[in-house]
Amino acid sequence: MFKRDWDRRTCAKRGHITYRPTEPELATRLHAATALGDAWRCLRCGDFALGAPHGSGPAENAPLVPRGKALRDLFILRFLAVERVLRGVLILVIAWAVWKFSNSQDAVHRVFDENLSVFKPVTDHFHWDLEHSPIVDTIRKTFDYKKSTLLIVAGGLVAYALIEIVEAVGLWLNKRWAEYLTVVATAAFLPLEVFELTEHVSAVKICTLLLNIAAVLWIMLSKRLFGLRGGVVAFEAERHSASLLEVEQAAGTVPRATHRGAHAGA
Asked: How far apart are CA 38 and CA 86, in angstroms?
């Protein structure tokens, strides 16, 4: 079965990341002399890239480049980040609409009642009681809300949207605090989403609920939040154990495997 190589796929798009450590033995393991010039091993995909390294210094100062499972997880986090920012923008639009409605509530009420009669011949033909339909009743109830109540609703929506956007930025940058924020904020709204399903079932609501449950469980387990699976200590150890530089450093005197060839750098 075909398995996606996230490391090479990312390097193909963004280019290789190379580093020359000051430790002589480690530098020798990451360096190769070719007929076309010096090549350095990419810290992400492990292939050799022609040209000068992108950085140099002690091995402990080398960038911790996501690779393997960590890189795949980063793609998933960024997918969630995009979903969060789109949701945040949508909620901001809704908040703006509620605010506009609060400033022209009476005018909107008149326009609604005047235009409702236009649809009556059609609904009467299909024997549908438009005047007492759930949708019309819900809209009419909003006309009875006080302006102060609508402004509170708009403010709450803005706060919720900002939380979503902050989550998105943090997840995109792979920040651990954003993972905690996402789990707490998403889990807090799960009971509300379940309640909405009891009121009205729709494919969109079901998909949203399932996506949020999956996101909470995946982030908690894969990122070892709240002490799960060893907590932050085990998480950091897992990240460092996947670092190509640390793998080579730990290999010590083990002979370096013959590389597959040099590739052009980014």
From this structure: 45
User: What CA–CA distance (Å, rounded) separates 18 from 33?
Assistant: 15
Q: Which helix (H) or strand (E) holds 97?
A: helix 69-103
Cα→Cα distances 67→74, 97, 140, 228, 240, Å: 9, 44, 55, 22, 10
| Nearest residue to 223 (alpha-carbon basis) of 178, 179, 177, 173 | 179
Pairing between strand 48-50 and 56-57? unpaired
* pLDDT string in tens for the chain (266-residue length): 445 677 888 888 888 989 898 888 888 888 999 988 899 988 888 889 999 998 898 888 888 888 888 888 888 899 999 989 998 998 898 888 888 777 776 766 666 566 556 666 766 666 666 555 565 566 666 767 777 877 888 888 899 999 999 999 999 998 999 999 999 998 998 998 888 888 778 888 888 889 889 989 999 998 899 988 888 888 877 776 667 767 676 555 434 443 334 444 43
Please name the residue ranges forming H helices in 117-243: 120-125, 134-143, 147-172, 176-199, 203-222, 231-241
Q: Give CA–CA dist 189/54, Å, rounded.
A: 45
Q: What is the DSSP string of 132-167?
A: G-HHHHHHHHHHTS-HHHHHHHHHHHHHHHHHHHHH
pTM: 0.67
d(C-alpha 109, C-alpha 118), whole Å: 15
User: How would you list the strands of the sheet with 31-34, edge to edge?
Assistant: 31-34, 37-41, 48-50, 262-263
